[in-house]
Amino acid sequence: MSTEVAELERAVDHLPDGWTSRRLLDICRPRQWPTISREQFTENGYPVYGANGQIGLYSQFTHESETIAITCRGATCGTINLVPAKSYITGNAMALDNLDVLIAAEK
Prior knowledge:
Layout: H1 3-13, H2 24-27, E1 29-31, E2 46-50, E3 53-58, E4 67-71, E5 80-83, E6 88-89, E7 93-97, H3 99-106
Parallel strand pairs: 2-6
Antiparallel strand pairs: 1-7, 2-3, 4-5, 4-7
């Protein structure tokens, strides 16, 4: 087991009072959206986010509300980003879809 995993497990075992731990799939639906090519980018439109942040603009968006994306390609794999509302998240990042809906359902 890596040092990082061991540290994370220790942190989860000692959560502050009133906190609980949940599996990721219990609170969201991770999804990789289709990746679009640079040729499909537009002059105006919605921001497109890949593994390294904003990479262009596109005529459509995949997310109405801000959401969390975890990069899943290259050297930045595992980096967590908060992506603004009305953005397109490519397949180079895993979008945590339905996060707000599923967390609200737990309350």
